[in-house]
Specification:
Jelly Rolls, Homeodomain-like_sf, Arc Repressor Mutant, subunit A, repressor, 2 domains, 265 residues, Tscrpt_reg_AraC-type_HTH
Length: 265
């Protein structure tokens, strides 16, 4: 008898099947997926641990209590960091018409999480042919995705090829100490154009975008179990207190508090 993941695979690019299907996954080791796309929209959620989702538009981080929404037909890949327990809801393309049109990160409500986990617990037969009660749960999932607030855990990617070269180098090594003039030379672009186009194409100035790369990478490092001091040093912060202060201003809590909260969920 096929398991739920095999059943889900059969409906990824089909107009048939229920509006919402769901599954959970537990990973003890890090795992990465190749770039792929499907006709169903997908919502990645985390119960424990962290994953990053890479799209053409940028990189989205999925810490605990948040989820990434990917509309249908968007190419994406994913990677987990440390032990991970998460869930995914797969939304039929027709049901995505009233959902966000662009990838985004949303704060997960307890109701959304429990509704998805309920659907993920169904047998393959029930997942394909849900009862009236289960259809109500599907409707709850759609309503929650529609109404929950968008959170700023994304990192928009610039479109200009010169800026992309700079952006990818910074993502590969967030601690790189080069200043804007050096990065402009690296990208074969003037520093003035670099500064102007970064704001136009990402909504962040270059310095803020660079800070965000470091902060999002620090979420991954926290999930991997690294100490706050080691993270601050590895990412090139002037001091541990500078890292903690920026983290608190951005995420509303200290790195240590974030780690404790994520482990408690």
């Amino acid at each position: 008898m096929p398991d739920l993941m095999h059943v889900l695979g059969a409906y990824m690019d089909s107009a048939d099947g229920p509006s919402v299907m769901a599954a959970t996954r537990v990973l003890e080791q890090e795992l990465s997926s190749e770039t792929h796309r499907h006709a169903r929209g997908q919502l990645f959620g985390s119960i424990k641990g962290l994953i990053s989702v890479h799209l053409d538009e940028g990189v989205w981080i999925v810490p605990a209590i948040h989820a990434v929404w990917i509309p249908p037909h968007h190419a994406h890949s994913g990677r987990s960091y440390g032990p991970y327990h998460g869930w995914s809801a797969y939304i039929a393309e027709a049901a995505c018409a009233s959902l966000p049109k662009q990838p985004c990160t949303i704060r997960v409500s307890g109701l959304l999480r429990e509704a998805v986990l309920r659907l993920a617990s169904l047998t393959p037969e029930a997942a394909v042919s849900p009862s009236e009660a289960q259809l109500h749960i599907c409707a709850v999932v759609l309503d929650e995705i529609r109404g929950l607030p968008v959170e700023e855990f994304g990192l928009p990617f610039p479109r200009d090829a010169r800026l992309q070269r700079i952006a990818r180098a910074l993502m590969a090594n967030p601690a790189d100490p080069r200043d804007m003039e050096d990065w402009a030379d690296f990208g074969a672009i003037s520093s003035r154009t670099l500064s102007r186009r970064f704001v136009t194409e990402t909504g962040f100035n270059f310095t803020s975008w660079r800070q965000r790369v470091r902060l999002l990478r620090s979420l991954e490092m926290l999930a991997e179990g690294m100490s706050v001091t080691a993270i601050a040093l590895d990412l090139g912060y002037a001091s541990v207190s500078a890292y903690i202060g920026l983290f608190r201003r951005t995420f509303g809590q200290t790195p240590a508090s974030y780690r404790l909260r994520a482990r408690a969920l």
